[in-house]
Amino acid sequence: MTPDELLEITPDLLARAILHRRERLAEAIPEQLDARQEELEIAVPLTRTAKENRDNFDKEINGILEKCLRSQSQAKQLFTTLCDSLQMGDSKHNQGEFDSLMQIYKESNENHQQQRIVLEQMKDLSDELFNKISQEGNSNSEIEKNHSELIDAISASMTFHEELLPLQNEKEKFNNTYLENETMRRRADSRTALLSQALDYSERGIEHWQQLIDKGFDRLLVNAKRVREGEYSTPALSKMNKVKSSQSEKEEGA
């Protein structure tokens, strides 16, 4: 379209073209909005169920971990009791080794395979400690009982980790399912919100342009009429007022 052709377009024609476009948009948006709302209605319960399943599974795992920690705490106490039966130097050395293994165990976090290996080392260290006590001739029924309970506590931890190993992949699956559904829910929610805003914007636009067409464009052409008559436009007047105001402030400051 050439500049001359563009100038020939009347305000009324331009307004009707804009109104027509707003009306087409307003007609197209509801169908898309319904589709996005339907997606959201599907995604919300799926996400809720996925989160509940993940949380319930986490509770199951945490229950096993708590049992494991209790058996570890019991093992540490029993190991310390056995260490007291050795000479002071040997006692500190063995206690230090056990504490180091405990630290490695904690730092392994949810690496259940690694933690199980550390538990094997704890078990071997406990047997070595009991053998040292026996070689010193300090073994008795109470020490034998403590040693047996110590091995049982460590074995219990190993059993718990055997239960946790196959659950690792399950945990990842539950978490991924929740994340996928949550992503779908957020996307549907975002699209629904954007389309709702677009529909509202279009409807307000239709009302605005329809009022202009109905009431005429005289109030919009006041500025153009003023310029044609040799007066300043509204933007020009505003700029001049700002300049005068700035000059006045400088004069007052001087």
SSE layout:
Blueprint: H1 3-7, H2 11-83, H3 88-107, H4 112-135, H5 141-164, H6 167-215, H7 222-228, H8 234-253
Helix pairs in contact: 2-3, 2-5, 2-6, 3-4, 4-5
Provide an overview of this structure.
It is a single chain. Helix 2 packs antiparallel against helix 6 (167-215). It is built from eight helices and no strands. By secondary structure, the protein is mainly α. It has helices at 3-7, 11-83, 88-107, 112-135, 141-164, 167-215, 222-228, 234-253. Helix content is 87%, strand content 0%. The longest helix is centred in the N-terminal third of the chain and has 73 residues, at 11-83. The model has no long low-confidence stretch (mean pLDDT 82). The radius of gyration is 40 Å and the shape is elongated.
Précis, in short:
By secondary structure, the chain is an all-alpha fold.
Order of helices and strands: HHHHHHHH
Question: What structural category characterises the helix and strand content?
Answer: mainly alpha
Report helical residue fraction. Answer: over 70%
Q: Round the mean pLDDT to the nearest integer and report it.
A: 82
Q: Give a quick account of the main beta sheet: strands, pairing sense, barrel closure.
A: none
Total number of strands:
0
Tally of separate helices: 8
Instruction: Give the strand content.
Output: under 5%
Calculate the terminal CA-CA distance, rounded to whole Å: 55 Å
Radius of gyration, rounded?
40 Å
